[in-house]
Amino acid sequence: MVLFRWLWRLVKLAIWLAIIVVLIPVVGLGYGFLTTGSPDATPLPGLADGAPPKALAAKVRAEIPGYQRPEESTYLTYPEWAIVYAAREYAGYVHDNQPSGFPYWSYIGRFWQDYAAVIRASSAYPFNFQNHQMLAVIGTSHTIEHAIQWAYENTVGRVTELAAGRRTAADTYQAKVAADYAAFLDQVPWYEFPYAEKRAGLFAVEPAAGDGSVRPGERKLAFGLADTIKQGYADLIKSALAATADPAFLDIHVWATGPVGEAIRNEPDTALERDLGADGAVFVTKRYQVFTEMIPRLIDKGVSFVEIGGNDVIMVTVLSADAIAVPEGARQLFAYRLPADPDRRRTGMVVAVRRLHTVLPALAKAGARLEHVYDY
Predict the structure, then answer these.
(1) Helix H segments across 35-168?
(2) Which of 154, 169, 183, 342 supports an S-S bond with 208, CB 3.0-4.6 Å?
(3) CA torsion, points 206, 215, 220, 177, in degrees to nearest 10?
(4) Cα 291 from Cα 305, distance rounded (Å)
(5) Residues 6+ apart with CB under 8 A from 312
(6) What is this structure's pTM?
(7) Domain spans of the chain?
């Protein structure tokens, strides 16, 4: 009878946990929609400027595998990057501060606000079930992880922080790991991060004079356990992906005009695919952050863009100290101050691909720094 009661309690606990997990994206998106407004729906200036000949565009799509990417993905990839930015901003915060003061709940709310914003922005496109399923899963994981870390750092973490009275060698090591993780995410999925290696490094940290034993021991126990769980989860994800998922598209095809061949000559992992004469050229390069960093270099060399991933619009974000005027050829989607660094402001906008070569320099001139171009 006692065993039956314990089993029933475990079943009820599992049911409640499942209900909570299911409710997280429902409540999260409800919060996101209630706290964000509808985006500007005015026609995007410059969208039809310099459109390629229809017959040539059809030929390019037919002859280059993977050339055409789903345009709605430029919006739906943004919440994934919002998690990268949360990691980046956490790393920046703990470089000088204790993790107990990080605004974990603000970043939970920010993810769901960002997700709601891109749902609105992509509402005219067909519903991309695979993308939305993935965003609901990673948003739930992001919420749970940040809520747990907030609870731990503001109870046990606060006690050991006060006991130490200073940042210890273990704190410094974990701040470096946070920076390594944020940089890693720029180009590689989180589940490839070497958690076990970082755990071994943490265990090898020797306390500095005056660190005491309480805070270093607690940091090693807490983060060592977290790294063990994350490494196990990452290994499961990698195994599941290897067995069931198609390889990710790591390349992006770009149709551009100007001195394309000369401009891309020294760019790594970049090759000319088609010389289209007076209509420009198509080249292929790597996606993600390396592509973002390449675009201003190409613009400086006189390159302009016809299509990226076969599409006419693309989303970008920039960072600035103050509000910025949106240049001709772009439309603002959202703007907000960073929760962990209120002196900086993130602005998201949709840009006509054929105006990128004028929009990005105008933003730079206005004092904004290009953060990312969301390449489908």
Answers:
(1) 54-63, 73-76, 78-94, 104-121, 129-153, 156-164
(2) 169
(3) -80
(4) 13
(5) 47, 51, 71, 352, 353, 354
(6) 0.91
(7) 54-73+248-374, 76-244
